[in-house]
Fold:
Amino acid sequence: MVKRGLRVMWVLLLMLPVSVAWAQADQDAAGTDIAVTSATSQLAKPSEPGKPYTSVIIDTSGFDLQRSMSPKIRRADGTEVWGTVKVDYDFLEDHGMVSYASSLENAMKSDRCGANPMTIKAVGIAEKKPASDPMIANEDATLLIEENSKGKFLDKFNVIFVKCAQPTPMLTASK
Structure:
């Protein structure tokens, strides 16, 4: 019950328009109190002048993202940002529309990443079967489209989804 409550709280906090931090006390198997601290609404930053982004990494950590042959990136309201594109079937079969990584570190090592990736934290997963479409904040969606006009990374399918069960924000233990 606590895990479900934390997950709902995490999703609700990510949807806030301002940066907020929260702490939730829980206990591990030994009964030690664990404080989980998370910064929310981590909006992506514009690229530096003359250094366009080479890819986008969508961090879906903490959400149950499912793999798919044709995933889409969606806004928080469910509308599509990217994904309905023409793609060569052989490319799709060999490489997929997106690459999946088990951590941000592994995403940075991906062939699709390049030297200057844009990183966006997902705010949820679209409610459809399979649950393969990450949702991002509207501000991030607008920035993603603007930045793609400079680097054309979406056109090159330089898209990586981080898929792991645990949220990536900092975890601290207190005794």
Remarks:
- Helices lie at 2-14, 89-95, 104-108, 138-151.
- Residues 41-168 form one domain.
- The chain is about 20% helix and 25% strand.
